[in-house]
Design goal:
The chain is of the alpha/beta class and 679 residues long. 49% of the residues lie in helices and 11% in strands. The protein is built from 28 helices and 18 strands. The strands form five sheets. A six-stranded parallel beta sheet has the order 8-7-6-9-10-11, with helices on both faces. A hairpin with a 2-residue loop joins strand 3 and strand 4. The structure holds FE(4)-NI(1)-S(4) cluster and iron/sulfur cluster.
Length: 679
């Protein structure tokens, strides 16, 4: 005993563990800033990931805290289970029920995040239509006309027996009202569901999963996962599908569409990415979060003559905006504002010492930003009534669409006034890459569509003839439990090397921009010969940036266009296509995964899924779901194997379509040609 005590006393005091920058990220700018933070004694998410281990039972998905008799914890026994699985909570809930309920609540939360964002957009659109705000306008009337019919809103009227164009204002008002009612209409089904390929819509109908209204599906998940309600994991998954469809083919899709109507549909443009976009001699404003309603105004304010002149009176050369996360993607896609980094770099932007203001709205915002900001001059400004922070150095400027420009100018002015307060030495990593962003369903049609047919004909043709092997959607977050950006980049390189064209959104897209994958020149370096040839002919990158996370709806619609263009089956599940979220972390990713799977897409997540404690439920998601919707979940942490699984699925679909031979011929042709050329 005594000896024990002495040992403890003389035990050396360990210095706090910190992250190894090279293990934490593949990005040099990130590594540099992690080191700088460590030098200054400031912890970042990378260090915290080293000191705090995840809970083992939560990792397995089998901790239930849905009532006060718990938390009930049902880890898998170390040697697995032989015979009957007798594990149960106090109420008798099985591991399947518990894991399914936890999964369902992630779907509910993720759907809520996207769809509440969508609702805010719809509300602003309604005030535009009612002419209650003058700061926002309808920038893309063509888009409004294209979505109106999906809401059953007529775009023409009969005057004296003739069809004439209807007033745009009238259409806008009716679309706004119809759209907003999607969140709470008392009967019917969501209007956009019929945009899906017919067989898919019929499948949903047959299964009884057509969402009725967005809010209701979320509420129903909360009800069904309450203690003692739905205790059949299959039935719970059914509601997960219904709710996630209300996200992908509902709230998120409306967010995308109405943002396009008000702020303009993206078209390809050039920009840059990574922390190196910040400028020492400029006022740097970093915009972070998800809703572009405010950031649109901040962009306009920062570009206004009076604000630029004001910045100059304070000794700055101008105002540099930079984005983080999906607000960053929104202003990149529409205005070319460069992203300063992904989700995991948010603290690092402040650690440069050059961030005069960081403006945040909702989602993916670290509370630790407030602690980091305290060590510098940075003003951290929250703007959304539903997203405040407890720390007292955080400034809250509530944003209101009715005086949007005024609020935005107040924020920009605050940043400018703060420029002269920079104290700590400014160190901005020089790393940044050039990128082409701003793709969408419309611009893919323009670049890859046939000139005459004006649809996805050329894309389909190149898939059928085998130059393009298939389509992958690679999306989603960073996760401090994986090496920052490594999984995204390794998977995407493997895919394009194998002639799979990649559509990307979210932080995955920012990672691609940072690592130089979003330029047409990438094709010649990283692509297989077939994809390289197509990209070089039409002048596009092999990886197309389709926007923010709500813009995953663009991937659904692009897939639908491919189905419609013909020759590749009748439904999304027939396509040689696969989805991936390599470094996922948010509940939104689970909602997205579920609507992709329920729309027929084989969807592979990286890192880990909280399902291992409930093998039967896991098997249902990873295998059984395919028999119902044609898509299924999978998880693979190793990035190369991850990509190979997607490619194997694409090849399986090519075979089913009878187009596997075509690819062999193309590759043979190409090999011959290369031989000729080298002679
Ligand atoms: Fe957030 Fe959309 Fe994930 Fe990035 S990708 S970490 S959700 S910002 Ni959607
Ligand atoms: Fe335990 Fe059942 Fe309560 Fe969950 S609902 S905490 S499993 S008693």
């Amino acid at each position: 005993m005594a000896e024990e005590k002495i040992k403890k006393v003389v035990k050396p005091v360990k210095s706090p563990k910190v992250a190894d920058p090279a293990a934490a990220s593949i990005d040099e700018a990130t590594q540099q800033m992690i080191l700088r933070a460590q030098d200054l004694g400031i912890d970042t998410v990378f260090d915290r990931a080293v000191t705090m281990k995840p809970c083992n039972i939560g990792m397995q998905g089998t901790c239930c805290k849905n009532c006060a008799m718990g938390p009930c914890r049902l880890p898998l026994p170390k040697d697995g289970i032989e015979g009957e699985d007798t594990r149960k909570g106090l109420c008798g809930a099985t591991a399947n029920t518990i894991a399914a309920r936890n999964f369902a609540r992630m779907v509910a939360s993720g759907t809520s995040a996207h769809s509440d964002h969508g609702r805010s957009v719809a509300e602003v659109f309604l005030s535009v239509a009612r002419k209650e705000t003058h700061d926002y306008k309808i920038k893309d009337p063509g888009k409004l006309l294209s979505i109106a019919p999906h809401f059953g809103v007529a775009t023409t009227v009969e005057v004296d027996g003739e069809q004439v164009d209807r007033e745009l204002d009238e259409i806008a008002l009716e679309v706004a009202e119809k759209a907003l009612s999607e969140w709470g209409k008392p009967e019917g089904e969501l209007a956009y569901l019929k945009r899906a390929p017919q067989p898919l819509y019929e499948k949903w109908k047959k299964m009884g999963v057509l969402p009725r209204n967005i809010d209701r599906e979320v509420v129903e998940i909360m009800h069904r996962t309450h203690m003692g309600v739905d205790q059949d994991y299959k039935n719970i998954v059914k509601q997960c599908t219904r709710t996630s469809l209300a996200d992908g083919w509902g709230g998120a899709m409306m967010a995308t569409d109405l943002q396009d109507v008000m702020f303009g549909s993206p078209s390809p443009l050039q920009s840059e990415a990574n922390l190196g976009i910040m400028k020492k001699d400029h006022v740097n404003i970093i915009i972070h979060g998800h809703e572009p309603i405010l950031s649109e105004m901040v962009v306009a304010a920062a570009q206004s003559r009076d604000m630029i002149d004001y910045a100059k009176t304070k000794g700055a050369k101008g105002i540099q905006l930079g984005g983080i996360c999906c607000t960053g993607n929104e202003i990149l896609q529409r205005h070319g504002v460069p992203p300063a980094g992904t989700f995991l770099q948010q603290e690092l932007a402040i650690i440069t010492g050059a961030c005069d203001a960081m403006v945040v709205d909702v989602q993916c915002v670290f509370q630790n930003l407030a602690n980091v900001a305290k060590c510098f001059h940075t003003k951290l400004i929250t703007t959304h009534p539903i997203a405040k922070m407890e720390q007292d150095n955080v400034i809250h400027i509530e944003f209101d669409e009715h005086h949007a420009m005024e609020d935005a100018k107040r924020i920009v002015k605050m940043a400018i006034d703060n420029f002269e307060n920079r104290g700590a030495e400014v160190i901005i990593p020089r790393h940044k890459s050039v990128q082409i962003a701003g793709f969408g369903v419309e611009s893919i049609r323009y670049h890859l569509g046939g000139t005459f047919r004006g649809d996805y004909y050329t894309l389909n043709d190149n898939i059928i003839n085998g130059r393009i092997r298939g389509i992958a959607g690679v999306v989603g977050c960073n996760n401090a439990r994986t090496q920052h950006n490594n999984e995204h980049i390794t998977i995407i390189k493997e895919l394009i090397k194998n002639d799979v064209i990649v559509l990307t959104t979210g932080c995955s897209a920012i990672a691609c921009g940072m690592h130089g994958l979003l330029t047409p020149e990438t094709a010649g370096v990283f692509c297989g010969p077939g994809l390289a040839e197509v990209c070089e002919t039409v002048g596009i990158p092999p990886v197309l940036h389709l926007g923010s996370c709500v813009d995953n709806s663009r991937i659904l619609l692009a897939a639908t266009e491919v189905v419609k263009a013909g020759g590749l089956g009748k439904d999304i599940c027939d396509l040689p296509a696969a989805g991936s979220a390599p470094e996922w972390m948010s509940e939104k990713a689970i909602a997205i995964g579920q609507y992709f799977v329920s729309s027929g897409v084989y969807t592979v997540f990286g890192y880990h899924m909280p399902l291992d404690g409930a093998p039967v439920f896991k098997d249902y998601l990873y295998n059984e779901m395919e028999n119902i919707y044609g898509g299924k979940w999978d998880c693979e942490a190793d990035p190369v194997k991850h990509a190979q699984k997607m490619i194997a699925h694409i090849d399986k679909k090519r075979k089913e379509l009878g187009i596997d031979r075509a690819r062999e011929r193309v590759l043979m042709d190409m090999a011959d040609r290369q031989k000729l050329e080298s002679n």
